[in-house]
Design goal:
Layout: E1 2-3, E2 17-18, E3 29-30, E4 40-43, E5 46-49, H1 61-79, H2 84-95, E6 99-100, E7 104-106, E8 109-115, E9 123-128, E10 135-138, E11 149-156, E12 162-169, E13 175-181, E14 186-195, E15 201-203, E16 206-211, E17 229-234, E18 243-246, E19 255-260, E20 266-272, E21 279-284, E22 293-295, E23 303-309, E24 312-317, E25 325-330, E26 340-343, E27 349-356, E28 359-366, E29 369-375, E30 381-385, E31 392-398, E32 404-411, E33 414-422, E34 427-432, E35 443-451, E36 457-465, E37 476-479, H3 497-501, E38 505-509, H4 519-523, H5 531-546, E39 555-560, H6 562-573, E40 580-584, H7 603-606, H8 613-622, E41 636-642, H9 651-663, E42 670-675, H10 686-703
Parallel strand pairs: 37-38, 37-39, 39-40, 40-41, 41-42
Antiparallel strand pairs: 1-31, 2-3, 4-5, 6-8, 7-8, 8-9, 9-10, 11-12, 12-13, 13-14, 15-16, 16-17, 17-18, 19-20, 20-21, 21-22, 23-24, 24-25, 25-26, 27-28, 28-29, 29-30, 31-32, 32-33, 33-34, 35-36, 36-38
Helix pairs in contact: 2-10
Length: 710
């Protein structure tokens, strides 16, 4: 079965004074004073001030007081927005419909997730066959009163007797593993802690997983993650005595993931040192004394083992194929000269392949839209698999011996729908379709190609009402990411509905740094080419303005994580181009990002300030924190972060906001929304999601001068 889804000094806060002038969008705000300290770093002879360094101490009482003071200001501002309550009511209304995940099978059992509508977390169900009576297997809503405990990952044993699952608390990347007997729905005594960036892969009466050593108290959410190791846990045994399978103490900043082929014959250890590139170490588990074979001698390429066909491993790789290909590698002859090409590289990007009923299903990306094809096991093309239109495959579930597979399809105005696929007949049919209180027929999506600063053609999707007029007056939200080989493809978002219903235009730019056109597109937005990402996004904004979709006074921008970095950078470079900016959980300090949690792994895309003097100066040239200019009139900004974000630590947004508040020369608000008991985004309960998008779109719509009606 395969399913693809795609940081010490005290602070002195003055009394908080918020003065609002009625019926205007530019309320004069007096911010709390954020203490400055004499913190200086030196890079290649250049001294860099870091006056808000003390905000990196996320567990200090002083930081807590700062967070409280900032949230009071933000909440007071948001409470004055006249339509905020009705907007939340609209979100609550449209959120309340059943949501299904893609079914997957083990033996005769089928498993799937379902949310009745307003449940904080989706529930895992199991049933016998496709016509069986579903029963609740695991309900994470029972694990906490406020819904902040979520299922992070799960794996069913091949005999369908046991479920291994991990949970995340309050949005943290730290997980805990439990094991359930599927028949009795009772947990076994097995309990493993300090898991991060790991799944579970079954072999016999146990499973492989990866874990870290326990951090010191108080350092859990900020300490650099080092020395990940792979273990095998046998059911019923003491986790502290689990068998160590793989480690590399000479390279503490490498990560390791273990997986087992469907027939439990081959163990695959994937080794990485960043978010891109890996090596494979593969062992034949039928021969316990045998050695590992190794695929890849550097981290310049990526390899993903789909499964095996007898002695042959089916692998998707971009080795000497920037847009990826599928190859067959015989375990006894793993040398490159012996590889057999199954599906050669094409102009489109090969995103993945799946095995089903003696066929290979390939998934391609063409101009940021998905296509599916079926092939014989020798790679020969049979036919294209019909899809409802231009959109995205949001996951594919199959087993290599079964004829029935499932996949999800979505687009901007096409709610995520589950399709059943008959492999032999090459036919698809709707399996589960959502019922949303939204008329998608009133909207249209267009794809345009605009020219960036260096002449590169960049695609962008634009969504709006069919009776839309290009008059330069339309409130518009431009979204981007641009990094880590991640592609932005059409997908349905409930959070956009009220904005679109009230005449808003949504634009999504497929800028460089992503994976829309393969590894070359990704590389063109990394390290010393990162400015291409910002140029592409600025050019997208200029296209929307010059083509009368909107104007600078009506344009908002938004992005999260690496996309938060994007928003911070372009805001500094072109503050005149936008009216509103919402950077979420952004990487804002490009000189120190690698010193916290898993930040070091992002160096492949970014480089670090210690790499070279040239790299230091390049990072300094665009780092959002370091390019805020005193006395600049910035547009309305609301940074968003969370207290349990141990991916991009909240200190990034803390220091960025404090600096921006001190520099603001205009009247537009500079706010920060700091969520409690939440992390980088995964596992957030429905109640918090609705609160989050209500505040986000209230801020955006209010500062774009919208007066929405619901």
């Amino acid at each position: 079965m395969k399913i693809e889804f795609k940081k010490i000094m005290p602070v002195l806060c003055l009394s908080i004074v918020v003065g609002f002038s009625s019926c205007t969008r530019t309320e004069k705000i007096t911010y709390p004073e954020t203490k400055r300290v004499d913190s200086v770093d030196e890079y290649f002879g250049q001294k860099i001030l870091d006056p808000y360094r003390w905000l990196e101490n996320d567990t200090s009482a002083e930081t807590s007081e700062w967070v409280k003071a900032q949230n009071e200001i933000t909440n007071a501002y948001l409470e004055k927005i006249p339509f905020r309550k009705s907007l939340k009511e609209r979100f609550t209304q449209i959120w309340d419909y059943p949501k299904y995940g893609i079914p997957f099978s083990k033996g005769n059992l089928y498993f799937y997730f379902k949310n009745d509508g307003m449940q904080n977390q989706s529930v895992l169900y199991v049933q016998e066959g496709l016509e069986g009576e579903p029963r609740v297997l695991l309900d994470p809503n029972r694990l906490s009163e406020d819904g902040t405990v979520a299922i992070a990952s799960f794996s069913v044993s091949n005999d369908a007797r046991f479920l291994a699952y991990s949970i995340a608390k309050a949005g943290s990347d730290w997980n805990e593993i439990y094991v359930m007997d599927i028949n009795t729905r009772q947990n076994l005594p097995d309990h493993i802690t300090w898991i991060k960036f790991s799944g579970m892969s079954w072999k016999g009466d146990g499973f492989y997983y990866s874990r870290y050593e326990a951090p010191k108290p108080g350092e859990e959410l900020s300490i650099k993650n080092q020395n990940q190791r792979v273990f095998y846990h046998k059911l019923g045994s003491d986790p502290t005595k689990d068998e160590l399978i793989w480690e590399d103490p000479q390279h503490p900043l490498r990560t390791f993931g273990a997986s087992v082929t469907e027939d439990e014959r081959f163990l695959i250890i994937s080794e990485s040192e960043s978010t891109y590139g890996n090596k494979l170490h593969i062992k034949d588990l039928q021969k316990p004394a045998s050695s590992y074979i190794h695929i890849g001698d550097s981290f310049d390429w990526e390899f993903w083992v789909v499964d095996n066909l007898n002695d042959d491993l089916i692998v998707v790789t971009n080795y000497l194929a920037p847009r990826s290909q599928a190859v067959s590698i015989n375990f006894s002859h793993p040398e490159i000269s012996s590889w057999q090409t199954l599906i050669p590289e094409k102009e489109e990007v090969l995103e993945g392949i799946y095995l089903a009923n003696g066929k290979i299903i390939s998934q391609y990306l063409k101009d940021a839209c998905n296509h599916l094809y079926s092939h014989n096991l020798d790679g020969q093309l049979i036919d294209e698999i019909p899809l409802p239109g231009i959109g995205t495959i949001g996951g594919f579930s199959s087993e290599k011996e079964k004829n029935i597979a499932f996949f999800a399809f979505t687009s901007f105005t096409y709610p995520t729908t589950i399709f059943k696929f008959d492999v032999e007949k090459n036919q698809t049919e709707v399996f589960r379709k959502p019922d949303i209180k939204f008329n998608s027929e009133d909207y249209t999506t267009e794809q345009v190609f605009y020219t960036s600063k260096d002449g590169t053609k960049v695609p962008m999707f634009i969504v709006h009402k069919k009776n839309f007029l290009k008059n330069g007056k339309n409130p518009t939200l431009l979204y981007g990411y641009g990094g880590f080989n991640i592609s932005l493809t059409p997908s349905f978002s409930i959070s956009l509905i009220p904005f679109l219903e009230n005449g808003g235009v949504y634009a999504e730019a497929n800028i460089r740094g992503g994976g829309e056109y393969g590894e070359e597109w990704h590389q063109a937005g990394t390290k010393m080419k990162k400015q291409n990402v910002f140029d592409d996004f600025i050019a997208a904004a200029e296209y929307l303005i010059s083509n009368k979709y909107t104007s600078p006074k009506k344009l908002a921008i938004n992005g999260g994580s690496n996309g938060g970095l994007l928003i911070g950078a372009v805001l500094n470079q072109r503050p005149d181009l936008f009216a509103v900016a919402v950077p979420e959980v952004g990487v804002m300090d490009m000189l120190r990002y690698h010193k916290f949690t898993i930040g070091w792994a992002w160096a492949y895309d970014y480089g670090t300030a210690e790499d070279s003097e040239e790299m230091f100066h390049y990072l300094l040239s665009y780092s959002p924190l370091h390019n805020i200019k005193l006395g600049t009139k910035y547009p309305a900004v609301m940074a968003m972060t969370a207290d349990h974000d141990d991916r991009v630590v909240p200190a990034h947004s803390f220091k960025y906001t404090a600096t921006l508040q001190a520099a603001q020369a205009g009247d537009a608000p500079i706010l920060i929304r700091i969520e409690s008991k939440a992390g980088h985004g995964a596992g957030r309960p429905t109640s918090k999601i609705i609160d989050n998008v209500t505040d986000k779109f209230s801020f955006i719509m209010y500062n774009l001068g919208m007066s929405p009606k619901f």
